[in-house]
Each structure stands twice: as C-alpha cells, then as structure tokens.
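Readers of this paper often ask what the protein records in our data store actually look like. Such a record has a labelled line for the sequence and another for the backbone structure tokens. Nothing more is needed to write down the fold, since each code stands for a local backbone conformation. The record that follows is passed on verbatim for readers who wish to inspect the format.
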Amino acid sequence: MLLEEDPSTLIRHTISNFNIAPDRTAVSRISESLSTLQQARDLRLREAESSLKKLSRTLNTLSSQHNELVSTHSSAAHASEISRLDTQKFRVAKSASDLEMETERLQTQLAELNARLQELEMQGVDGGDATNGVGGGGVEDEVLLRLKVYRSLGIEIERDSKDGDFNRVVVRNDRKGDVHVVNIDRKFSRFFYANYFWQNL
C-alpha cells in the first residue's frame, strides 16, 4: 500500500519528518557570518597594506634625512649641542623636582582643608551638629559655611546686585602676590572653574 502512494507525497512526508528547517536556518546564519568575516578580513588587509605603504614612505623620507644629516655632521657642533641639552636637561629636572614638591605640598594642604571642611559641615555653622539642626543650619548656613571656607583659601565670591547670583570670583595667591578676577560664564562647567581656581591658588 505504501508504494502505491504518489512519490512526491512520500518525499514531502519524509522531508517534514526530518525537520530540516532549523538546520537550513543555521547554515544560512553560518554563511552570512562567514561572508561578514571575509569582508572584515579584506577590510583589515586593505588597511594594513595602506599603513604599510605609509610607513614605507615615512621610512624613505627619514632615511633621506638621516643620510643628509650624517653627510653634514659636525663633531664640534654636535658636542656643543649635547652640552646645551645636558644643561637644559638638568634645569628641567630641577624644575620638575620643585614642581613635584610643590604638588605634594598642595595635595597635603588640600587634604587638610577637605578634612577641615568635612569637620565644619558635620559641626554646622555655629559649632552644633549639622545633621540634627543644632545651630540653626539650613541652606543659608550651608552657603555661608562654604563661603567662609572659600575665603580661607583665598577665593572670594561676589553676588550680582541685580539677580543675586554669584557671578564674580576673586582668587588671591598671597604666596605669589597674584590676584585673578574671574567673571562666571554659564557656558563653562564647574569642573573647568574648579581646575582654574586650584591652578591659581
């Protein structure tokens, strides 16, 4: 009875029983992945070839410059230049050492000031506990406290007489005897102004 059925019907039933659709989908995905991978490899190969050509041109240019320098080399001028560079190197090293010491001093000072600020914020403006409201803290007291801390650092913040916003800052550096007046512009971030103030303290 089975052999009397139409062969096409038998083939369709056989195919449906094997359920090859997931395998076909997987093969299609693999083919797409292989194609994408091949394209990416071709692109990287072209980029590598382009970089190699650029490096070759650069090498040829540097080789020509090197040959020219070698042909025009002067021992006396070279020794003089070496001596000048050594002197400059020692000056730069001393400046770097001084800057490193100054940076460490400022970092120590900053840590002390941050600790003092934290202590003052915990105590409140009048010496009470800021967390439980002793000393009549509030937003205005917090602002006054911050202004006092800034003033102790040499930073004075002035309000605008029209709208009451802080729009002008005077930064004093008593150690250098410098005074910088900065008009606050909203288009610059707080991070920008913070870095600028610390650099001038």
Confidence is low (pLDDT under 50) at residues 125-137. The chain is about 70% helix and 10% strand.
